[in-house]
From TrEMBL:
The active site is at residue 164. This is malate dehydrogenase. The keyword Zinc does not apply. Residues 139-275 form the Lactate/malate dehydrogenase C-terminal domain.
Amino acid sequence: MTSLAILGVGKVGGEAAFLSAALGLVDEIVVYDVYEPLLRAQVLDLQHTGLDVAISTEMAAMRDADIFVFAAGTPRTPAIKTRADLLEANVPVVERCSRHLQGFSGVVITVTNPMDANNYGLWKMLGIDRRRCIGFGGQLDSARFARFLKEAGISGPAWVLGEHGDHQVPLFSKTGADPGVGEREAILSRMRGASMEVIRGKGGTVFGPAYHIAMLIRTILDDRREALPCSCVLDGEYGLSNCSLGVPARIGREGILGIEEWDLDPWEGAKMAEAGAFVQTLCRRFDV
Ligand SMILES: NC(=O)C1=CN([C@@H]2O[C@H](COP(=O)(O)OP(=O)(O)OC[C@H]3O[C@@H](n4cnc5c(N)ncnc54)[C@H](O)[C@@H]3O)[C@@H](O)[C@H]2O)C=CC1
Ligand SMILES: O=C([O-])CC(=O)C(=O)O
């Protein structure tokens, strides 16, 4: 019996619950949201699918889940320029979440922005092994990168490391084609604005995040042991510590099985160092 817990069943948490049920990934989904009418509506809507999945709203049952998805808190509106600007709004939500989750022994997936800092904060407050805290966002950034590469006539694997935010690091070196620094910067600039176009049009990104969260859940539960771009609490990898940052990580049933240290070209290496320094400043918020 596999159990998935989702805290915050708004746009992303709700859709991730639905997709996990529709794809038959788990036997039970435990959901909770501070906004009671929404919670009730999401539970009913899930039940009305008739899918063979147990739905619970027992907050205490979250602690016993195999996977816990943290998707509660404030999202961006067009008035909020960067994901990092959500830090102060969402720190209290991270704190409340960690209090509820003390004693959790499964795998955490952090979604709430600024995701890298919040993943670091949850890890610190829960006091669990860093391999059990996975920050989600790199798969989504990589899917967006793949689209821009295709438009530029470049094929090959699309990997994005670094911050899930303005300091994201697309790995052009992995594609086998170098469009030059000018074109790299132009593509990066479009990637930085990719989600805001969706937020402006429909109030938030939903299908992209929910789909890739479901794929991450499947990778964990099936113990696929494959490398994905995930935010991991670093301990010297890529020359960085005291932060959680997007890196290639082998993911399986126990969470992060290993972090792969890839060679980056000079442009990527400089961007990665900038991303690390930037996210470290956000993570310091959790070091006090
Ligand atoms: N990492 C990623 O790739 C992505 C991250 N996000 C982030 O995920 C978060 C959620 O986004 P949306 O679902 O669009 O927002 P939303 O506003 O639709 O849903 C958030 C939900 O959290 C609930 N909530 C707030 N505080 C809570 C608490 N203490 N306990 C339980 N529930 C609580 C709210 O009532 C609301 O229903 C945002 O921070 C957003 O920026 C969104 C998309 C992708
Ligand atoms: O951009 C946002 O605020 C939501 C998000 O993280 C994404 O869709 O990548």
